[in-house]
From TrEMBL:
InterPro entries reported for this sequence: HTH_69, Nucleoside_phosphorylase_sf
Signal peptide positions (record): none
Name assigned to this protein: Winged helix-turn-helix domain-containing protein
Start and end residues of each stretch annotated as Disordered: 314-344
Start and end residues of each Winged helix-turn-helix domain: 172-232
Extent of Low complexity compositional bias: 320-338
Gene3D superfamilies reported in the protein's UniProt record: Nucleoside phosphorylase domain (3.40.50.1580)
Pfam families for the chain: HTH_69
Amino acid sequence: MHEQIVMTPKCKTANSTTIMIERRRQAAEPVLNGNKDDIHIAGGDHKGIIINKQMIDNNHENKPAQISLKFIVFLVDAQNGTHSQEQRTLFFWFPDTLMPENRATVAQDFFKELVSPLEFPRDYVGFIKKIMKLVQNKYTSIDRIEIELKQIDEPIEFPVRPVSTDETILEGEQKLELSREKVLELIESAYPNPLTTQDLAEDHGWDIEAIAKKFIELEKDGLVMAMDKGAYTRAVQKNNQIKVVKQMPQLSSAKQPTIAIITAQYCEKLAVDSMIENKETFVRYTTVGSEKDVDNTSSSSSSSSPTNQLVYSNTLELDNTSSTTTNTTSTTTTTTTTKHPRRRVRFGESNVYTLGDIGAHRIVCTKLPTVGHTREAMTAAGNTTTRLLGTFQKVDYVFLVGVGGGVPHYTDYKRHVRLGDVVVSYPIRTHNKVVYMYCEDARVLSSGGCIFDTKEYSPTNLSLQNIASEMKKQANLDEGFSPPWQNYMREGLKNLINESEHNFEAPPAESDKLYMNIGEQDVIEVSHPSAPKDDAAYARSDGCPQIHLAPIASGRRISRDDQLRQKFASRFGCLAFDAEMDAVVDSILGNCRDSFAVVRGIADYKDGSRGKEWQPYASLAAASVVKAMISAMDPPSPMRK
């Protein structure tokens, strides 16, 4: 008794073809339909593979597929260069010996290997051949696969993968295009640090006068406000609630926050603030001198009075010193200008703190200055966190809240992370409490395996993770349960409608596109797995994010490589990636805070920095889940408060 992998054409229409590949156990070499001309029996390396040329009856097998997976490829005609789209659907059948909960994993692993960039088959023969060889040699738990190839007559729309500011910096050779939107994005990213035209000119190679025009346009629209020393910062609506201070005022014991929320993007800060009641915001601006230069400007210069004064952390040198000399013989007076080294004003680590209430708890929320992969950005993020915890020393719990990139599951609806869902950092292994991971480096071996150098972070106290687990359990088990975070999202959306230029409404569902890299900068579009018909509790409802519990990871090496990111996620069970926040977590643990949670609303399938359209909504989703978690916490004891 030996196994054979038999390929048979099953169905053909004007625009589609269906092919069946099944595993058969035969006692002798078969002669299908009694005619040797109808079959081809492979030999050599392909022994055990049989090609049946005759189409079978369409009623050959009525048993429905146990799992299906659909994706779209973009084809190019080799003769005339025209493009077309083809939808390919894989249907899977498994033996009864394979547990139902393992079927989705087998199907997903099979699909990932089928479309691996290293050897993705770019013609029909290679595509079918690879499926047969995988079924024959590696995926012996698959009994049968059917492949439907269907031409799509819709207009060609090639997938566009947006490039983030941080990714552009990493690539080096790319240059950001100066635009009003990009300048506003950079100002929001740097907030609360102000920016000058010279900052942007040096960082991005833009013309100073062109940048100044963009600043003026944004100021006229009320989006930025001018500081002194030629700096600009984000204009916050309801600006009268913001107090600019040299140092934080003393707070009474009852007003001391016990929970800190750290955000990195401007829309994340707005989303969290919409969840806080009785809030007041304090901003402390600082400047540092840098980069000596020679200024040839005449001493007879004038400057307008600044709208907002900055609090300086050091003394800046004057650009020029004027001296007056009187000639007694000719009674003439001359003024000379002496050139001195000029120190350009660089605005350093300013701080913004919003204090208020969520339920019975006092909250402080801050926004990090620009985060990313540069050492300067990571150091600033760690310093800001240390200053936060040093200023508010009664903080016991810390949340890192904002956007992230999801890890999709192509075949299992319950484990599939979609845009707008929320991932809460959670340990999945019983022997450790790792909830956040940073990949310092990754190496690909000649065998195809990978070695990852990681830093792992574990809170001593998992009380926040336990609360999230109970919330998810209740939402999944109780079909009539109304998740509190859904109501908080609605309330937050009302608060944000008139307060921000960002659109926090959910983007159209069709904008949630899922792509896989197949090498040579080519991608295929993969359909999202369908909801189970027999499990209504897991079905998504509009305006209600799904909560997922898993470790969250980061690291520039894996965030830029689709295959490494997939392998890392599979090995360590991660369901989300974010911008590098390891310096922040280092500071939290270094300041002896035993309980922290990273909460990421999913904005894209990378690291959260690419999906601009989904970032506001994803931020609001994460903030609403955090409010639900805080509301479920025990109120602080009167003695502690």
